[in-house]
Structure formats: C-alpha cells, structure tokens
Amino acid sequence: MSWSGLPPTLTAALLLGAVAGLGITLVVRELLPRHTDLATATANLRTHRPGPSSAATVAAAAAPRTLTDNLGARLLPLSRRDLPGLQIPAQQLDLLGMTPAHYLGQKAVVFLLGLVFPGIVAAILSLAGIALPLPLTPLAGIVLGVGLTFTVDLSLRREAVLARSQFTRAIGAYLELVALARLSNSGPVAALVAAADVADSWPFQRLRQELLRSSLSGVTTWRALTDLADELDVPALAEVAEIMRQAGADGATVYESLRARGRALRTQQLTDEQAKANARSESLDAPVAVTALVFSCLLIGPSLLGLIA
After folding, report:
1. Is the Cβ–Cβ distance between 196 and 174 less than 8 Å?
2. Integer Cα distance of 9 and 127 in angstroms
3. Residue (of 51, 57, 132) closest to 93 by Cα position
4. DSSP summary character for residue 135
5. Helix 136-183 with 202-217: angle, nearest 10 deg
6. Residue (of 60, 71, 61, 88) closest to 152 by Cα position
7. Would you tell me which of 34, 53, 157, 248 could form a disulfide with 188, CB atoms 3.0–4.6 Å apart?
8. How far apart are the first and last CA of the chain?
C-alpha cells in the first residue's frame, strides 16, 4: 500500500507515532551507560565541582560527555564575544556545579526543538489538507526557539535561589559544629576542618574542597571562606570566616559568638519561610473569592430569573 492511498488522518497519526518513537529512542540512548576514554574522564575530574545535583564522586566526575555538552562546547567561543543570549551566568553555574558547556548545550537543544516543532506541525496539517502560509512556519520556529532559550535562564535562576537557600541552611548547622569543635579546645583552623567533615551533603563537600584548596595553596582559611562566600553570594559564610579570623588573630573565645550567630541565622530563615507562606496564602484569596462569587451566582441566579419572569 502506498502513502498516497492512506487517509490523511491515518498518515498524520503514523507521522506523529514516528516522531514520538524517535524522541523515546533518543531519550533511552542518553540514559544507557556508555564507555568513556581516559582523557575525557581526567578532564571532567579537573573541572568537576560539587553542586546540588552532584555527589562529587569519581564515578560522577568520570561520566562521558553527552550530546548536550558537545553542542555547548561548540558555542563556548561565541559566548566569549558577549553575544545576546549566550552570556555565561558564572556565579549561578558555579553554585549549581554546572559547566558552561552544559548550560549552553541546554539552550541549543531547546532552541532546536522550538525551531523544528512548527515545521512538524505544519507538515502534519498539510497532510490533513490544511495549508499554512509559507513564511509563517520558519518565523514561528525562530520565535518559539528563542522563547524556549529564556526558560533555561529562568530555571537556572530558580535553581540557584534554591541552592543558595540550602547552602545558607547548611551554614547554620556548620556554625553549631564549629562552636562544638572550639568548645573541645580545637584550634580555629582545626575546628573549621573538623566541622566540614561531619556531613556529606553538597554544601559540606564544597566547604571541604575550599578548605583543602586553602591548605594546599597557602591561603589563610578565613580568606578562602570569604572568597567562597563572595563567589556564591552567601553572606553567612563570610560572617563565619570573620569570627574565626578574630579567634585566630587574638585567641578570642568565639563559642558564644558562633552560637548567637547560628540562632540569629535560624530565626531569620524561619521569618523568611513565614513570609513566603503568608504570601502564598494571600495569593489564594483572589481565586477563592472568585469561586465563592461564581457559586453564589449559581445559587441565586435561578431565583432571580424566576422573579423577573
């Protein structure tokens, strides 16, 4: 049987099934384990940094580069020219442990999806006997592709805010652990290192990484933590570094200072959570009021119509 002998609706259904099957095949292909060469694994180990979405293990660092990473790597030279839409949000990527190549690759993938989607829809409609204006399809593809690239930035910004909140929460626990280490007569640097070794969450991994780097490079521990606080935009970590710097400079007793700062940080976080909860509750007032108004109209409307009649 030839394609010309099939009904248009059946032809459109077959094409949709083929496109869906191709998409499932590509997704499964990305999920299947693949081998990687030694050069790729070594490069990933050098550039890998712990983030909310990674466990900072050797296995994760040695993962092969995906199609998304390869696309982003080709766009990296263009990002250095400050072209619109290709600027690298370095602080957010560093906070999330994401490489610039992966970020640009995500934008390239969603742009290509948006670019071809109107063409697929136009082809299916043409088989069903509906013809779209010729310039409309490529124009719609470009607009949709560009619009989808902004969703990557919005998602990245939202994830960065959440990760920064998680890091600040971890600093509250870190303050308590450093205070306990100081109470057991540990030195300032030893207290910071011992407290960072307690947990395996990504903020503590990042703290351990920075403390190890400072010991190897000769930079003071509080200076390294201050730089990390500025890099990630987490002021609470800079306050920890300042308190421990004072302890290292003049031998001041910082146990009470650390505990007080920890309590203040938890109180501030609780206040922020309550404010967010109140804002969500207030955002529900309008939908509830509209629903109540519609329900009242449904109850009273028939009676009013009966009186009028």
Report:
1. yes
2. 8
3. 51
4. T
5. 70
6. 88
7. 248
8. 64
Task: Give the number of other CB atoms < 10 A from CB of residue 212.
Answer: 13
The beta strand positions in 118-277, using DSSP E, are none
How many Cα atoms within 13 Å fall on the side-chain side of residue 96? 18
Cα separation, 298 vs 223, in Å, equals 67
d(CA 59, CA 56): 8
Dihedral sign for Cα atoms in the order 24, 30, 33, 34: positive
Rounded Cα distance, 3 and 7, in Å: 9
Structure tokens at 32: 């299947």
Contact 89, 153 (CB under 8 A): yes
pLDDT tens digits, residue range 102-143?
888 888 888 888 888 888 877 777 777 777 676 777 888 888
Question: Cβ(240)–Cβ(178) under 8 Å?
Answer: yes
Provide the pLDDT for residue 45.
41
Amino acid at 238: A
pLDDT digits (tens, 9 = 90+) for 280-308: 776 666 777 777 777 777 777 667 666 66
Q: What is the DSSP letter of 3?
A: G
Tell me the two tokens of residue 203: 């903020």
Give, in order, the Cα–Cα distances in Å from 182 to each of 87, 119, 156, 248, 258: 44, 65, 38, 12, 10
Residue 52 per-residue DSSP state: T
Of 94, 100, 104, which Cα lies nearest the Cα of 160?
94
Please report the beta strands in 76-210, taking only residues with DSSP state E, as ranges in sequence order.
Answer: none
- pTM metric for this prediction: 0.64
**Alpha-carbon gap, residue 178 to 161, rounded angstroms:** 25
∠ Cα 107 109 113 (to 5°): 115
| CA–CA dist 301, 263 (Å, integer) | 57
Residues 6+ apart with CB under 8 A from 65: 40, 44, 73, 101
With tokens 């600093």, the residue in question is 171
Write out the two tokens for 109. 């993938």
